[in-house]
């Protein structure tokens, strides 16, 4: 039997009303207020600026009218569309269509052959298992097809295309090669000497593990490739130019322990106001007070709302949103999406590749291991990328940020500053100070690299996402090694 009912619920935490729509959904979900939802219910709630949608285990259609949304398609063929700001869209099993819309979105197709479109701003797109199509749109995107033979398009702006030994045979349609740093392959668990290069009628094919995996750069030839097109996400390598007829490269290793494997102090208890469990997800929503939410063995999605919250993710890929207040977020292991919201927050990415967004306030962001996207947002933020290649995202309104550790400067695409919001190379100045290299643009924004000198830096340390093909900083002390063509 199909049914839908609407309930008007007053939560004791604040004198406002929250509208809840309950629709059929298979599986069991129980909230922490001991209100059992029907075994076949779907969930649609709006609270604060959020739209929460948990679909049925068959096909779902949902388009958000709220600024931010968290949507879970579950099984079946789902069509999910985000709002004007930052959304988290999870397709689940089945063939899904996810459209992030505006804002910096996190899209995860899950199992099945999915179609993901990021839209404007910086988006993180993960296809999951199956043959997926990913189109990031504008901004500095992070695209990972996952298992299966995938089709990737970065769109406008500089993009990172992540591959590893399990990626399958992917195709990238709009890769912009050559120095300076712009589009690049973010390569995990593959050594430089394992790569093989071959020109085809469609473009250069880069393969590994005896052709068990590969990526085809459509319209690109081998002689157009430069060092800055290759980022080895675990350690910094400088690929060495070779003869045009060669099919492989050698590399100089700059492996370095950057440290910074920090975790948040533990907190006892679990005070979530509402909980939903379904498939492999565990969703919790807080109140306008200081909440604590603990990691589970599932994929956690936590929303702190107001108050100074402490949110802990586990071993899987988690989504943690602190929202208002001075929040502490710890992603743990897995590829996590952490968003501090307004207030002075502390974000700990943990192991693997994470997205950290501090938003408003003077935040502290610790990337941990892996290829992390680190965006302090407005305010004067303290940043530590930890081990692995990290992108430190800055805009004209970023404030005065300080990178206290985890920036490995020099030739070879690795840690870098990603300039966005129309910042041009001729607006950027780099000067040595007693604390380190101070990078400035405009009159009220800068990023200080503690312990780094200008002479230690290279053009690979700078990425201009709004300059087609990238650009160079005009400073004679900054090295150009690493931007040379590889097959000459």
From TrEMBL:
Keywords, sorted A to Z: Secreted
Main location: secreted
Keyword Secreted: yes
InterPro entries (alphabetical): Hemolysin-typ_Ca-bd_CS, Hemolysn_Ca-bd, RTX_toxin/Mannuronan_C5-epim, Serralysin-like_metalloprot_C
Protein name as catalogued: Calcium-binding protein
Region (Disordered): 129-149
Pfam families hit by this protein: HemolysinCabind (PF00353)
Residue ranges that the Swiss-Prot or TrEMBL entry lists as coiled coil: none
Highest taxon, organism lineage: Bacteria
Subcellular location: Secreted
């Amino acid at each position: 039997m199909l049914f839908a009912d609407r309930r008007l619920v007053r939560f004791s935490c604040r004198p406002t009303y929250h509208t809840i729509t309950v629709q059929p959904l298979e599986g069991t979900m129980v909230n922490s207020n001991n209100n059992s939802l029907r075994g076949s219910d779907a969930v649609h709630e709006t609270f604060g600026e959020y739209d929460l949608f948990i679909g049925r285990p068959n096909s779902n259609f949902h388009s958000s009218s709220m600024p931010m949304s968290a949507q879970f398609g579950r099984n079946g063929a789902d069509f999910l569309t985000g709002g004007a700001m930052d959304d988290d869209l999870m397709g689940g099993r089945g063939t899904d269509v996810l459209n992030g819309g505006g804002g910096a979105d996190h899209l995860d197709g899950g199992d099945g052959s999915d179609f993901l479109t990021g839209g404007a701003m910086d988006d993180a797109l993960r296809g999951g298992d199956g043959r997926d199509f990913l189109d990031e749109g504008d901004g500095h995107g992070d695209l990972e097809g996952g298992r299966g033979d995938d089709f990737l398009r970065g769109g406008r702006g500089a993009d990172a295309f992540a591959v590893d030994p399990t990626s399958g045979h992917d195709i990238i349609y709009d890769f912009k090669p050559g120095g300076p740093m712009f589009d690049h392959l973010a390569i995990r668990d593959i050594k430089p000497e394992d790569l093989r290069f071959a020109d085809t009628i469609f473009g250069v094919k880069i393969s590994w593990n005896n052709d068990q995996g590969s990526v085809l750069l459509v319209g690109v030839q081998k002689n157009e490739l430069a060092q800055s097109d290759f980022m080895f996400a675990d350690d910094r390598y400088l690929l060495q130019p070779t003869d045009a007829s060669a099919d492989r490269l050698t590399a100089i290793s700059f492996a370095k322990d950057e440290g910074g494997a920090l975790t948040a102090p533990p907190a006892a208890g679990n005070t979530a106001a509402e909980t939903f469990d379904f498939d492999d997800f565990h969703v919790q929503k807080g109140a306008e007070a200081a909440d604590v939410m603990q990691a589970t063995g599932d994929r956690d999605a936590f929303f702190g709302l107001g108050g100074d919250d402490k949110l802990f993710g586990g071993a899987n890929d988690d989504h943690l949103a602190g929202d208002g207040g001075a929040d502490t977020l710890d992603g743990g292991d897995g590829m996590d999406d952490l968003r501090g919201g307004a207030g002075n927050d502390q974000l700990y990415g943990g192991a693997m590749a994470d997205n950290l967004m501090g938003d408003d306030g003077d935040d502290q962001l610790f990337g941990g291991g892996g290829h992390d996207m680190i965006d302090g947002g407005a305010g004067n933020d303290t940043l530590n990328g930890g081990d692995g290649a990290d992108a430190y995202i800055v805009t004209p309104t970023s404030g005065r940020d300080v990178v206290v550790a985890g920036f490995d400067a020099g030739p070879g695409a690795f840690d870098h500053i990603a300039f966005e919001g129309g910042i041009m190379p001729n607006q950027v100045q780099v000067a040595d100070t007693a604390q380190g290299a101070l990078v400035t643009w405009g009159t009220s924004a800068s990023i200080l690299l503690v312990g780094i000198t200008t002479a230690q830096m290279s053009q690979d340390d700078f990425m201009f996402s709004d300059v087609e093909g990238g650009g160079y900083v005009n400073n004679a002390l900054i090295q150009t090694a690493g931007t040379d063509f590889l097959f000459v």
